[in-house]
Each structure stands twice: as C-alpha cells, then as structure tokens.
Amino acid sequence: MASTNRGVTQADIDYFASAGINVVHSNEQLGGTYNTDYFNKYHGASQTIVFPKSTSQVSTILSHCNDSRISVVTQGGNSGTAGGAMAQQHELLLSLRDMDRIRDLDVISGVLVAEAGCILESLDEHVRKFEYIVPVDLGAKKRCMIGGNVSTNAGGLRYLRYGSLHGNVLGLEVVLPDGQVLDSLFTLKKDASGYDVKQLFIGAEGTLGVVTAVSLALAPKPQSEQLVVLGMDDFVTIQRTFVLARQLLGEIVSAFEFWERRCNELVVQYEGYSSPLSATHEFHVLIETRGSLARHDWEKMGLFLARLRAEQLIGESRVVRDPAEMGQVWLFRSQMANAHMKSGCMHVYDFSLASKHQHELLRAVKAHLHKHRLYACEQAVVRDVTFFGHVGDDNIHLQVIADEFGGAVEEAMEPWVYQWVGAHKGSVAAEHGLGAHKGQFLRYSKSPVLVDTMKALKRLLDPNDIMNPGKHVARA
Amino acid sequence: MASTNRGVTQADIDYFASAGINVVHSNEQLGGTYNTDYFNKYHGASQTIVFPKSTSQVSTILSHCNDSRISVVTQGGNSGTAGGAMAQQHELLLSLRDMDRIRDLDVISGVLVAEAGCILESLDEHVRKFEYIVPVDLGAKKRCMIGGNVSTNAGGLRYLRYGSLHGNVLGLEVVLPDGQVLDSLFTLKKDASGYDVKQLFIGAEGTLGVVTAVSLALAPKPQSEQLVVLGMDDFVTIQRTFVLARQLLGEIVSAFEFWERRCNELVVQYEGYSSPLSATHEFHVLIETRGSLARHDWEKMGLFLARLRAEQLIGESRVVRDPAEMGQVWLFRSQMANAHMKSGCMHVYDFSLASKHQHELLRAVKAHLHKHRLYACEQAVVRDVTFFGHVGDDNIHLQVIADEFGGAVEEAMEPWVYQWVGAHKGSVAAEHGLGAHKGQFLRYSKSPVLVDTMKALKRLLDPNDIMNPGKHVARA
User: How far, in Å, are A36, A404, A423, B40 from residue A409 at the CA level?
Assistant: First the structure.
C-alpha cells in the first residue's frame, strides 16, 4: 500500500541540519543495517536517516514531516523480525540510537526511566548493580532497544514470571505525529485517573508516534538461580511437567522453554555448540527458577525432579549449577533463530495459541506442505518445519526453512496458516508484531469491530498517515 | 456539567419491555441503593433502571439510547467511592447485576472468562476449587463486581504481588455506545497484533461503553499463607522494613499494609473489633506472604523477623498462624473505611504518591486545615485526619473526617490537596477512579496534551456523549 506522502528533498535535509539534527543522506540507498532487517528477509529503500539526540529534536523532525507530509519510519536496534522498521520506499528513517540516556533510577521504588535508544542488555546490567533486573528479556538483548521492545510489545523469555509490558511499563514519553510531546512518563505503580493512553503505544510499532522514553517497574534481582534441562519424548509430557512445575516450583519458576529435536540439531550444526544433553530427544525442555534463598530453591527443584522421575516423565535430565554453564545453556537457546536462518530461507511465524493446539499446528503445517508437494517428497523445497516456544504464555515460534523466500512456500502457507490459527482462537502475532506483512491477516483473529476501532484510532492520532505508513493495521 | 441529552420517556420504557428487557421505573426517584453511593456522599436522581441479562440486551439498550440521545450510567456492585456510578440527573441506570455467568474456566492455562456482574468474592471462591485465585482483591469484594473492578482499574490489596489489571486482563467484551459489540475477549497471554484497544476501557469508568465480560489471567492458589502484624513508631521504619521484606521475603510477599494509630482506634471504637496488637503504636504494619511450601515460607518469615529485631525496628510483633485469626486481622483491616464513615462525614482521598512524600502529605494537610482554623483548634469542624495505605504500590488513602460534607472543609482541601499531590508527582486517583468529581483536578497531575488526547478518545468512541456524561475526563 503506497503512501501518498512525498519523499525527502534537499530542502528538508538542510532544514534538519540547520536545526542541529544529525542527518545522513545518500544518493543511493543508505548502507549499513538501516535497509536490511535482522533475518535478511525485509529490505528497505531509504536514502535519508536522522539521529535525534533529544525529545525536542524528535519533535522538530515530526512537526516538519507532518506539515510537509513526509513519512517516517522509526528504528531502534533493528532486531525486529516482521519488517516493521524497514522503510518501504522513500520514507525518512528516524533512528533512536543517540537517545540512550538513563534519566532516572529510583533505587527505593525500583522504577527506571530510560530513553528509547538504550540497549536492553545495558539497562539490565546497569540496574543489576542496584539489585534489580529489567523484567523483559529476549534473545536479541545485545542489540534491541527498550523503545523497540515497548513498540513491538516484546514478551520474551520470562513473561511467565514477570508478566506483560502492559503491566510493567508505568509511563511513556511519546512524540505525537504533529510534534506535540505526550508526556505520560509517570513513575507510579497504581494510577486510575483517566484513560491509560500510553497503552496504545505499547505494540503500535511506530504507527502512532515515536516513543522517546520509557518508565519501567523493575523486578528485584534474584538471589539464586537454578537451571535444569530435560529430555522428553512427547509434547503431552511437557504439558504435564508444566502443571507439576506450577505446583512444586510455584512462585520461583522464571522460564519454561521447549524446543524440538530438529531445532537442537540445527544449533549444533550451524552454530557449533554442544547439545545441552547427551542423548537425542524429541523435545528439550529448559526450566529456570529464581528465588531469594538458594537452599530453599534447590530443595524445591529437587522435590520437583523427584516427582518427575516418580511419574516417569523424563528420559535424561541435567541440573546445571555453575553460572557459566547456565550462560552456555541460555546461549544455546538464544541461537535458535540464528541457526535456522543459516540453514536456509526462514519463513518465521510467531503465534499465540492454546497449548493443546500447538503440536497439532506443527503436524498440520507439515501435512499441508506435503500435500502441496513442498515438503517430505521428491521435489521438496522445504527443508525443515520446526517449532519451539515458551510454555505457559501460549507463544510458539514456527519456522519453515525453504530454498527460497516467498514463492510457492509462502503461497501455500499464507493465508492458510493464519486462518488455521485464527480458527483455533490463536493470535497471528504473539511478540514479534504485525510489521510490514501481517496486518492483512489480522482479521483472521480479530473481529471486524475491533479492527475498525484500531483503524479509527490510527486516523485520530495520525491523521496525515505519516508514521510507518502501509504497515501494521493499515494493511488490515 | 449538564448533558444535553434527553431523559427516559414512557415510550423508551415500553421499547425496552417489548425487547424483553427487565426495566424498572418509578415516578419518584428509584429507591434501594441505586441512587446512593457506598459512602453516602453521592446521591443520584435516576427514575429508571434496566437489568439486561445478555450482551445482546445491552447492545439493544445502548443502540436505542444512542439513537435517542439518552444518557446511560452503568452500575455494577455500586461500591465505588467516587460517585462514578451515580446518575446525576435523568440518566438511565444500567445494572449488570443479572449478567453474572461464568462463561469459561480453562483449568490448564488458568484463564477465567466471566460476565461483568459476577461478584469478585464469588469468582474467587469458584476458582479456588480449581487451585487458582483471582489476582485482584479489595475490601469491597463481597459487593463489587468484576466489571466494575475493571472499569475503575481497581488495584487493591495485593497489587504488589499480582500486579495491575492492565497486565492481568487478557480480554474484554465491550458494548460500544452505538450498540456494536467490541469482542476482544481473548484468552491468550501474549498478543502483539495491533493496538491493545481493550486497555482503554480499563479505568474508563463506563464513559466509553459497557464492559459486559472479562477474561482474566488467574494466579495459582498459594499452598501456604503467613501473616504478621507489627507495631512501629515512625514512617521511616515502615520504609526500611519494606526494603528488608523485599530482600528476605522476596517472591513470597503478597501484601504490605500500614495504618496509623487513629485508624486503628476508629476500627476498635466504631466496629467493635479488638486491636490486632495489645499496645498502642503510631503505626500498624500487616505483612502477608504466600508461597508453595509452608516450611520454606515460615522459615523465611522467621529470618525476616529476626533481622527486624536485630535492627531494632519493631516494638511489638504478632505472628498469626491460625487461618481463622488471619481472617480476623484482614477483617479488621477491611473495616477501616467503614469505621471512618461511621465516625463522621468522610472526605476520602485516594492518591498515588512516592513513598518519601506520603507522611509529609499527612502533615501538610493537618497544618493546612489548622491554618484555616478547621482542625486542632477551638472551632474545629474536622475531627480527624488519617491515612493508611499499601506499601510498595505508592497508594495511600487519606481521610478527613468532618462534621459535614462539602462546606469549608472541601473549600480548604480542594483544589489545594490535588495541587500538592500534582506538585509532588503524584496522581489524583490511584484506584478509586475520577468519578463524578475528580476529573476537574486531573490537570494537576496530567499534562494538557495527555488530557486533550483523553478527551479526543472520548469524542471518538462516544460521539453523542451518552456514556456517563459529565463525569471522568469530561470535567477535566
């Protein structure tokens, strides 16, 4: 969907420069990562990027763009997987890289106020010195920025324990499309005074304005961490194990991940890491606990594992006690997407789906691709269909690894897979966002009244359609 | 602010009746509790009330009212304290009392779908049979309804542990002012597909539509509970104790309440309960923990209390082990508002404020009322100025008990106290909502751009201003 807005001219560039804004323009397309997304699937065509250093500079930029009808694509760490941060044609790129100050950390209340360009891992390292952690964590933490985490509503690895950004974000500073600064950068936990406007920007993927700063409720730093990796034969066993974990590990469970056999093989093959278990298993399960008293936490873990053995649920188990080894297991887990990417052209799907339907989906996809003579047959162009996910928060990642992007694979998969997920009451995007492509499938899981309300909100807040046009709900 | 909408006529009543809707009309004002709020402060003047039994009936009602420009005030358990559920003039009352079905409980994922008229305590009792609890709890639980909890964004007693409704509400069914049903009744934990529209209705106090059903992420039922009541001499000690609780009780802390001496005396005097401690203390502190293994939890409590004693932080402590006694202590705490109400005309304030300013506020209010010759002087009409609150979530309740409502006390207090709170970066409403009165003070704690955005959202979603007109942000 092409925007009717105009492109950036030399006069615009001069205007930004005269306002003291760092602007980079290229007669060709911009190099670096600006026009290529993390998985090398989406490619942008932008020639101009601005690097504001302050909220006031962001306001100057948007005000000018709104008046001049120039479209703007906001970029954080550019680690998204849905193409949301890629300029589709002549849009201006707005990078938040240089807005990376920590504005405040209240060590009594545990509230952090940080600018949008702060790298997630750096924030976490900083607050750990004060006995806190950032309550969101994900594979891209070395690269992603907190503004992007908020804008994509990233759920991540420890949602199970720390919950949603809709609960943990206490306030936002947002520059609206017309340049007005919407200051809702509150640091209070309870607040019931008026509509919670900031919530609209959580997951808006830069379509309603630019998030310039975030106020976050931090979680206390755990005093002890436990990790166990389990080998399992079937998906039902994972579900039973999860129920037992909730009972016996209770409030200390902090992550519960699974990945299937082929995912494990790909990480070993393409990343060169050793498998965390010695034997081959249909499923690997990683359970992490975090607590305030190591002796209690290990005892709970022991009782839990004893129960699993008594119920004959596990084949092989490895209790990891050494922090360095724990880091290696997490590194193995975090390389899953990269390993898939290296193994071929990765069509990646990010669904929310009730646990009871998750394995069924994988089987349905394989059968569907086979029926279309794309998988598990002589002329197959699909090499692998895999899934891994976060148990307890409904989120699975499904990968179809093919010889090429798009083409017959995409045609067979889409919209079929989105229809399947919608029909099973799932969501077409759990934590990666709608981005450039998935808005068109939104109606498979959201009702027309809801989608129309989303579109009305977009028109209200961005009447000139300058913010990330043609993406997200614009495609719905 | 008088609405220009018209009142209910006999023809409207006939229309509702012909559609099978239970409608009650009185030539005088309606009796019962419909026109009197819980604290007997706000009084309505409605003559007509409807009791829809289904979402479809709510849709019929709103569609008719929108076409006919009849204003609608939604009522749940009518336990609010801000007058939000009182009809101000000729509005139609819409009670959700008869929409009290539990639609679904997924015992694996722990997601409850319930209609808005379900009583909070009944829901909690129901889900406890399946090893879950409802993650919100408050003093009015025997009367308040889940739709009202969501609509006022009730935080309650265990926010510290279970977090915000913005995180725990997974979906809503809302009838929009024009009668369209906005179905966002999802049961998925992670979802990043489009704007999170449902968030706008959390805390909207019935100004954007009628919440007819709620999907809630439940919390696991604790396997053990611990309770301790502490006597303390000053507010600084409470803060230090909270820091130690976070360290030593960690993930099992589930409530941390304080109330000052006079609050304790009022409950003893007006409710006839025994004080939970034997001596008189400037402050009482109630700490509750909930965990999955009693032996561990009690051991942590022991370590915590030993540390408090070592630091000489407590005067008297009472560890409560018997569940019935725990119930009595909670009952004592929950009678705080009632006892104040019985002691005189209660001007109640519900602020969020950084902990470091909370005691300062109480002192400032006393000094201010004294300066106005209303408190602690010969002609005083103010009998008591008290506060109690939830430590760790920034929320305090401040009471000014006077001989009369309104008058000189209200004039002295307002807008002065809202300005004071705004100037100290607090919020004018933490969990009771803006209701009939407090919208006018919103600008002391929210920026003009934010307030204007709220008003624009109201115009977008309720263009005919039929939903709870003249309240909430309409007064801002």
Answer: 22, 8, 21, 66
> Which residue from B168, B354, B450 is facing A182, i.e. has the nearest CB?
B450
Q: Is A106 on the interface with B (CB under 8 A)?
A: yes
Which CATH number fits the domain that encloses residue A58?
3.30.43.10
Per-residue buried b or exposed e for A9-48, using 16+ beta carbons within 10 Å of the residue's own CB = eeebbebbeeeebebbbeeeebeeebbbbbbebbebebbb
A293 touches chain B (CB under 8 A): yes
Specify whether A256 is located in the same domain as A289: yes
- Residue B325: band (very low, low, confident or very high) from pLDDT cuts 50, 70, 90: very high
Helix (H, G, I), strand (E, B) or coil at B446: coil
A172: phi then psi, degrees, rounded to nearest 5: -135, 150
Strand-strand pairing, B224-232 and A22-25: unpaired
B195: Cβ contacts below 8 Å, ≥ 6 apart: A200, A203, A204, A208, A454, A457, A458, A473
Q: What does the pLDDT look like over A323-343, one tens digit per residue?
A: 999 999 999 999 999 999 999
Judged against a pLDDT cut of 60, whether residue A193 lies above it is answered with yes
A384 beta partners: A401
**Helical (H) or strand (E) element with A232:** strand A224-232
Could you tell me what percent of chain A has a pLDDT over 90?
93
Domain count, chain B: 4
Is residue B5 included in any domain, yes or no? no
Tokens of B252: 């099992």
Count the Cβ atoms, other than its own, within 10 Å of residue B236: 12
Q: How sure is the predictor about B95, in pLDDT bands with cuts at 50, 70 and 90?
A: very high
User: Is residue B447 assigned to a domain?
Assistant: no
Nearest CB to A450; choose among B197, B246, B433: B197
Question: What ipTM, to 2 d.p.?
Answer: 0.96
> Which residues in chain A have Cβ-Cβ distances shorter than 8 Å to B352?
188-191
CB contact under 8 A, B450 and A199: no
Whether residue A287 is found in the same domain as residue A323: yes
Range(s) of the domain holding residue A126: 102-220
Nearest to residue B141, comparing CAs of B158, B163, B162?
A: B158
Q: CA of A425: which chain B residue's CA is closest?
A: B186
**Residue ranges in A231-282 assigned as alpha helix (H):** 235-248, 261-271
Cβ contact, residue pair B159, A189, below 8 Å: yes
When pLDDT is averaged across residues A183-192 and rounded to a whole number, the result is 96
Pairing, β A224-232 against β A316-320: antiparallel
Average pLDDT, whole number, for chain A? Answer: 95
B45 vs A: CB within 8 A: no
